[in-house]
């Protein structure tokens, strides 16, 4: 049962979403490449959580079968983050976040496929809106096609592991899941490194030694943007409705793009066509929980015979 939410809870939720929107910017502030960033982010995040469990003497054991599923989900998370940071590097933070704005719509299509339920009419309509928005962005920002494609692929992977996590969280503590998923993501980044070094570094090899401010940004990324933000979001779920949370989380690209323009200035300023396409995507994403909310209310009335 949900507890009474306060204005402070809603403000805290927006603050957490701003933190998540800041991750693409951190990817540009850190000098080491995307694979190395993901390695340190997941290593630090799993390390922080491991220390918390150690201090609290909390048991984190999972069965071998369940552990395999959770570690596998961590592999997907790692690939998602690698593409996410890579997209920001080959384009801009704004382009990356525009592509990532499609995550919830991908989820709307993937979830019915996994749960073997019907796709709703408004999901098809909003999906077409997202495609039209992406087309507008591609038309005006053709030079960033690679970064936008990577971001959309990252969003698709994010949707897949979100659906998987939806099932896993029903059986396990979210904190235990996050610990093992971060551990799995770290393992994947290590396994991917030889392939990455051989084919994507142009002979430069891996850059595993952070420089200057990198350590500060990495601790911010692993500690604040991952462990802290997740912990607070889980706590807020006890008092806020899923509708309020989903609607607010969909504002992440907006906050991220605004922050990118404020921090990087002209480098992040795009053509009017880019913002038009992004606006179309965001409208469709923001409309989804609204349509879903009223659709559930209508179905509930039918069941009650109202």
Automatic annotation (TrEMBL):
One of the record's GO cellular component terms: membrane
Pfam annotation, one family: EamA
Q: Which InterPro entries match?
A: EamA_dom, EmrE-like
The answer, when asked if Transmembrane is one of the entry's keywords, is yes
Taxonomically, the superkingdom here is Bacteria
The EamA domain, residue ranges? 11-138, 146-287
Q: State the signal peptide span.
A: none
* Alphabetized UniProt keyword annotations: Membrane, Transmembrane, Transmembrane helix
- Its transmembrane ranges are 12-32, 38-55, 67-86, 92-109, 121-138, 144-164, 176-196, 216-236, 243-263, 275-294
UniProt cross-references to PANTHER family, sorted A to Z? ACYL-MALONYL CONDENSING ENZYME-RELATED (PTHR22911), MOBA-LIKE NTP TRANSFERASE DOMAIN-CONTAINING PROTEIN (PTHR22911:SF79)
The name on file for this protein is: EamA domain-containing membrane protein RarD
What is the native source organism of this protein?
Belliella pelovolcani
